[in-house]
Amino acid sequence: MTSFAAECRLAEVVPSPNFGERIGVTRPDILLLHYTGMPTGEGAQAWLCNPESQVSSHYIVHEDGRVVQMVPEDRRAWHAGQSSWAGETDINSRSIGIEIANAGHPAGLPDYPDRQIESLIELCRECVERHQIAPERVLAHSDVAPVRKVDPGENFPWSKLHHAGVGHWVEPAPLGGGRFFQRGDQGQPVEALQSMLSFYGYAIEINGDYCAKTEGVVAAFQRHFRPVKVDGIADSSTIETLHRLLTSLPRFA
User: Fold this and answer.
1) Confidence of residue 168 (pLDDT cuts 50, 70, 90)
2) Which end of the chain, N or C, is less surrounded by CB atoms within 10 Å?
3) β-pairing, 30-35 with 75-77?
4) What are the percentages of helix, strand and coil residues in the chain, rounded to 5?
5) Residue 243 · residue 196 · CB < 8 Å
6) Rounded to an integer, what is the distance from CA 210 to the centroid of its chain?
7) What pLDDT does 253 receive?
8) Antiparallel, parallel or unpaired: β 75-77 and 19-21
């Protein structure tokens, strides 16, 4: 595509040809964060702008804090893949996608530099204000595609974003003893857990069976909201943290 005007103060424009029209929505209502999972940010940006890749995002934030916009916000970038949130499955049409240059799990989860997170926060603030995106709809790729995706990872500083005014967060309940649920368990308590996860927005079948998919959704929840231990086991800390999140939602106020 030809060039366009950057929509965020920090951004420079490097157009990607990989985009389409948003379908069935008038504006994005999800801000979706990814890591690139590639050795360098420049390599990731080149891939996102390569027509052969068939992938893109609206923005990439480099390790040094540089922000590049590749797709206009009113267009549908190709970053979410097969995904779902709150019953919606075309997440690309509903979202702004931000790739954060970080080699991710394959490289042992390197830290996100402070200058990168500072730029990301400013970018996110502009996006959520411009489109009135609710805090609880600032999400991880792993939230909308549990099991399949794990980015931006348990090392991502969600708490720092929240304290800067971006995203939904509560202090995780501390690890401790007590009853827990894991793969193979069945019954009404498992169904209640699945119902709570579904109510928050995760795609999960409510059937009382702690199956592999339930384990994967619990791990995705932990990766975002209780990152100190990501094992897919619904211990008391996980359940209490989920309860705190639900009760802090505006619709419960």
Assistant:
1) very high
2) C
3) unpaired
4) 35, 15, 50
5) yes
6) 23
7) 54
8) antiparallel
